[in-house]
Design brief:
288 residues, 9-stranded mixed β-sheet, alpha+beta, 3-stranded antiparallel β-sheet, binds succinic acid
């Protein structure tokens, strides 16, 4: 990791990943040197956290565009006035939240999202933390034998089973109200290497996730699932994770190819409202 930052203060959150960043005020403006260091911290720590940002939707969008082109989420409710921002909302009467199972964003796209920028507009008095896991650490801890085998594999990813028709069977529609929809748009299928060379760091990372990976290419679902389940359980070991406690005005910027995340659903009866912008990625190459 690059520990030499001169325009920001970087405080690691856990040995595996995550750092809180001080010295950034998005509303006041982020200079090119500061932005370069922020981007370096993103590469070094996989998820970075800012506190006490007081920004408008337009400032959120302008900040996001410095990271890359915006990838508009097809399934989350957009902010009415700013459709490039997706709402991650849970109302006091709703039971299910968005993102409660471990996943990485948009792996069903041919060019999966590089980053996601989540900004807290309203948070519960306690609870609603987000967990992150390092897919570098998960890969590094595998045996040489399994690393060798996985490096020969590709996996199929799809939006269909998570967001398509039938995905919400058995879910109370009131619980989804105003949050998730557009099931007809769930048509994305993609194939990616199981072990990727991260496009920014060059490091190997495990690239399968429980929400969107369907099977290994050339394997049946039944053959694939036991090994996928092993990899998911392996990847969420405590040592590979960090946990972020939100406050109003906090922001998390995570590296999708390098991480999984999971939004805890432990704050029933209170509102949590986040605004998310997702940043376009690039093709993922195998680590060979
Ligand atoms: C998400 O999966 O993007 C939501 C994360 C969160 O709400 O903490």
């Amino acid at each position: 990791m690059n520990a030499s930052y001169s325009t920001i203060q970087v405080s690691p959150l856990s040995p595996a990943l995550g750092a809180e960043i001080d010295g950034i005020d998005i509303a006041a403006g982020v200079g090119d040197d500061q932005f370069a260091e922020l981007r370096q911290a993103f590469v070094d720590y996989s998820v970075i956290f800012l506190r006490d940002q007081d920004i408008t939707e337009d400032q959120h969008i302008a900040f996001a565009e410095r990271w890359g082109a915006i990838n508009v989420n097809r399934f989350f409710q957009p902010v009415a006035t700013h459709p490039r921002i997706a709402e991650v909302r849970k109302e006091p009467h709703q039971k299910a939240n968005i993102g409660s199972s471990w996943h990485t964003d948009h792996s069903y796209d041919g060019l999966p999202a590089l980053g996601s920028i989540l900004y807290a507009r309203e948070v519960p008095s306690v609870g609603g933390d987000t967990l992150f896991a390092s897919m570098y650490a998960a890969y590094d801890a595998l045996s040489d034998g399994l690393k060798r085998m996985l490096s020969t594999l590709k996996a199929e990813h799809s939006s269909r089973h998570a967001f398509g028709a039938g995905a919400y069977a058995g879910t109370d529609t009131e619980d989804l109200g105003g949050r998730l929809g557009n099931t007809a748009a769930a048509t994305q299928d993609a194939v990616h290497p199981v072990v990727i060379r991260h496009p920014l760091s060059g490091r190997p990372a495990l690239y399968v996730n429980g929400d969107f990976t369907v099977r290994f290419e050339g394997w049946t679902k039944e053959e694939s699932q036991p090994l996928l389940d092993y990899l998911y359980a392996h990847a969420r070991q405590n040592e590979f994770t960090c946990r972020f406690r939100w406050r109003r005005g906090s922001m998390a910027i995570w590296d999708n190819p390098a991480t999984h995340h999971c939004a805890l659903n432990d704050y029933h009866g209170e509102r949590r409202l986040m605004h998310r912008i997702t940043i376009e990625g690039e093709p993922l190459a195998a680590f060979a």
